[in-house]
């Protein structure tokens, strides 16, 4: 039997990062990925003369070399920053809610953001500035929590991050109201909520503040050759460090004995000996499919969690340029209402969900598609498993219904006319995402952020969760302690990889 110090299951962002960390820590590591290419959602695909980005709208918290964000610092440590060509995203976002006569385009940079908000909402400056001050404290408190692997000294927390501790258990809406921020400013500031997929009555303030701060403080980036470029760089790095990567290889069973993990079975029947597994797939898949005789307390704890949004994306290759079509921005949020609680309710069904986050990549990278063309992708989330009720015979009609509505909505809200220029169209539904990455119900955002299961509880429970779990098993993905998103899943891989190196060293 081949023996490894650790096996990583899945080459998504979390799995790739964990594998680099393990190899850097001197572990003999094997990474297995069921697809023929790495990245999970972090990939690209071709239709005709267009290479589409599969998921990334923008990577936050990267920053410039002389003003590095946490993701750049991590990529520097992993040794991959210079393997990737980075292109900055021009503006933070444009949010449009025609029903409420809102159309705001917000810039990157805290000062510029605060001043632009003051122009849209006179009198908002002080409260918006207070938000960013608080958000920065949140960022620093999280950095401290990460660096201590969740074992925080509460006295140190109170002394250094008092305001963070004070707002730690409140929702976004509760804290924004307490800052006396005018309603319209709250609405504009809330536009990013669909990136996290929980409404702002439920979403923990520290989680949202951390993300907004990471976007606005240092801007956002996109890799020149789509997110696939990042995934390839990470694979190259694993191999440089002596790690092994097997594609077209699915882990079908994780073996356990009375001490914990003892091996992994691959789809060709090969048995790998290991005492450590880092799972890049969801706990639902690991405990429901890969491990037998899972203790009941783990099954219950896993089932207590709530699935976050199920994905739907339409990709368009257009045979006119963004200028010709009147597409002015890189990143649009189109809402029916700026009340995230009401909007979340509408996102439960195919008929009512009309929300979209839309990107025109050419606005960041003019030459990402052939001259005289442009590319767009339109994403929405479903807050219930509504696609499960669609019968196979009605599936294509349902896809067409949503795709048409997305185009109509974009044309009405922005005035750009795109329908007549469609050269390529591809549509991914929750079924596509369930099949591609194996996530239940086509969920693309892991477990939803709840007040008891948000960013801070997960970070602070890391040690206890491991002790109460199966010895040798850690999770690294959008389903784990940092929640979903690119940066979050890279950080999850970083934490799980480093912790597993520590486990291996402790065990000798
Ligand atoms: C349309 C869309 C748009 C998005 N936009 C953004 C954005 O703009 N910004 C942002 O930050 N985030 C965005 N996200 C979210 C982001 O893509 C994810 O949070 C992140 O990529 C998840 O990474 P992960 O580590 O969880 O791995 P996943 O991408 O979930 O990959 C898991 C991998 O594990 C493999 N695997 C599973 N089971 C097995 C097994 N048994 N054996 C072998 N391999 C296995 C799968 O094949 C897959 O490759 C978006 C997602 C989507 C779908």
Could you explain how this protein is built, in words?
By secondary structure, this protein is α/β, with parallel strands linked by helices. The chain has three domains: 2-86 and 224-294 and 470-507, FAD/NAD(P)-binding domain (3-Layer(bba) Sandwich); 108-218, no CATH class; 309-437, no CATH class. 40% of the residues lie in helices and 20% in strands. It contains 20 helices and 23 strands. Strands 11-10-19-20-21-18-22 form a seven-stranded mixed β-sheet. Strand 4 and strand 5 form a beta hairpin. Helix 1 (13-24) runs parallel beside helix 11 (226-240) and helix 7 (172-178) packs across helix 10. The longest helix is centred in the first third of the chain and has 23 residues, at 125-147. It is globular and about 65 Å long. It starts with a strand and ends with a helix. The mean pLDDT is 95. The site of flavin-adenine dinucleotide has 34 residues, from helix 1, strand 18 and helix 20.
Estimate what percentage of residues fall within beta strands.
15-25%
Structural class: alpha/beta
What integer is the average pLDDT? 95
Q: Work out the oligomeric state of the chains in this entry.
A: single chain
Q: What's the CATH architecture name of the largest domain?
A: 3-Layer(bba) Sandwich
Please provide the count of β strands.
Answer: 23
- Strands side by side in the biggest sheet: 11-10-19-20-21-18-22
Bound molecules: flavin-adenine dinucleotide
Which of globular, elongated, flat, extended, rod-shaped describes the shape? globular
- Major sheet summary line: 7 strands, mixed
Question: Fraction of residues in helices?
Answer: 40-55%
**What's the level 1 CATH class of the largest domain?**
Alpha Beta
The helix tally amounts to 20
CATH homology group of the largest domain: FAD/NAD(P)-binding domain
Low-confidence stretches: none
Distance between the termini: 21 Å
- CATH names the topology of the largest domain as FAD/NAD(P)-binding domain
The Cα radius of gyration reads 22 Å
Count of the domains: 3
């Amino acid at each position: 039997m081949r023996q490894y110090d650790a096996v990583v299951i899945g080459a998504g962002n979390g799995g790739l990062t964990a594998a680099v960390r393990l190899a850097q820590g001197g572990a003999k590591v094997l990474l297995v990925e069921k697809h023929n290419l790495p990245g999970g959602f972090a990939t690209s695909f071709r239709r005709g003369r267009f290479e589409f980005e599969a998921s990334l709208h923008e990577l936050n918290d990267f920053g410039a070399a002389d003003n590095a964000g946490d993701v750049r610092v991590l990529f520097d440590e992993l040794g991959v920053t210079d393997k990737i060509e980075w292109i900055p995203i021009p503006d933070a976002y444009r949010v449009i809610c025609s029903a409420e006569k809102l159309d705001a385009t917000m810039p990157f940079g805290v000062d510029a953001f605060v001043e632009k908000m003051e122009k849209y909402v006179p009198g908002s400056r002080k409260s918006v500035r207070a938000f960013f001050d608080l958000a920065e404290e949140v960022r620093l408190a999280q950095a401290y929590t990460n660096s201590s692997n969740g074992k925080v000294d509460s006295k140190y927390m109170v002394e250094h991050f008092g305001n963070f501790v004070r707002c730690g258990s409140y929702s976004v809406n509760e804290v924004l109201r307490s800052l006396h921020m005018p309603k319209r400013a709250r609405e504009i500031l809330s536009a990013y909520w669909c990136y996290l997929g929980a409404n702002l009555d439920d979403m923990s303030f520290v989680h949202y503040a951390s993300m907004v701060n990471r976007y606005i403080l240092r801007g956002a980036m996109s890799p020149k050759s789509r997110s696939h470029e990042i995934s390839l760089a990470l694979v190259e790095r694993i191999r440089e460090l002596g790690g092994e990567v097997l594609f077209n290889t699915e882990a079908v069973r994780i073996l356990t004995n009375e001490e914990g993990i003892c091996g992994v079975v691959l789809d060709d029947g090969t048995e790998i000996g290991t005492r450590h597994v880092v799972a890049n797939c969801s706990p639902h898949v690991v405990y429901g499919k890969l491990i037998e005789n899972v203790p009941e307390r783990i099954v219950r704890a896993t089932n207590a969690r709530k699935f976050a949004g199920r994905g739907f994306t339409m990709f368009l290759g257009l045979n006119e340029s963004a200028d010709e079509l009147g597409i002015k921005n890189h990143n649009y949020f189109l809402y029916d209402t700026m009340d995230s609680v009401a909007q979340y309710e509408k996102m439960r069904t195919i008929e009512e969900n009309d929300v979209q986050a839309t990107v025109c990549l050419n606005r960041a990278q003019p030459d990402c598609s052939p001259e005289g063309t442009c590319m767009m992708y339109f994403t929405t989330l479903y807050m219930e498993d509504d696609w499960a009720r669609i019968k196979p015979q009605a599936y294509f009609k349902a896809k067409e219904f949503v795709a048409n509505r997305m185009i109509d909505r974009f044309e009405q809200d922005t005035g750009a006319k795109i329908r007549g220029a469609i050269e390529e169209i591809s549509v991914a539904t929750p079924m596509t995402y369930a099949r591609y990455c194996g996530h239940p119900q086509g969920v693309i955002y892991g477990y939803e952020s709840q007040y008891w299961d948000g960013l801070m509880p997960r970070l602070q429970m890391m040690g206890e969760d491991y002790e109460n779990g199966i010895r040798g098993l850690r999770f690294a993905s959008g389903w784990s302690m940092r929640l979903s998103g690119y940066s979050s899943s890279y950080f999850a891989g970083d934490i799980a990889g480093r912790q597993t190196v520590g486990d291996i060293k402790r065990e000798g």
